[in-house]
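User: For my dataset I need records formatted as: sequence, then structure tokens, nothing else. Please produce one.
Assistant:
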Amino acid sequence: MAAELHQAVARRAVILRIIREQTIRNQEELVKALRKHGFEATQSSVSRDLREIGVAKAGDHYIAPADGAALNPFAAVANFVLAVRTAGPSLTVVKTTTGTAQSVAVAIDKANWPEIVGTLSGDDAIFIATEDARDQRKLTGRLREIFGVGGGGSG
């Protein structure tokens, strides 16, 4: 068990180095790059590693989290958010730069905030459902503070 943990920690450090040094477009490319560094990994273990270390996908390639990302899980995706708006009493829309909505949605989902019922992301927008208007106000306040954006619209 300790050997497996050490192997995972070492593999994750190499993943970060690879992503910082070259453009990696998908998990298959990352598995091949890891193999060149002496690590045998499956796509599912790489997927888990990427999630655990906070790697985000920006358009067509992965980006490593900023150095302070361990303290702030939103650090890797903070610059992707353009606006936070409300649409009715229980739907919040987060506008992002093109190709980054899924990465931002993953960070929001990982936060496990109780006011969120569910999220749905596209290419440049995330729809977040809340139970009611009170939960929506709490959510939009959090999002606007974290991402440093306003929204306009009805919220």
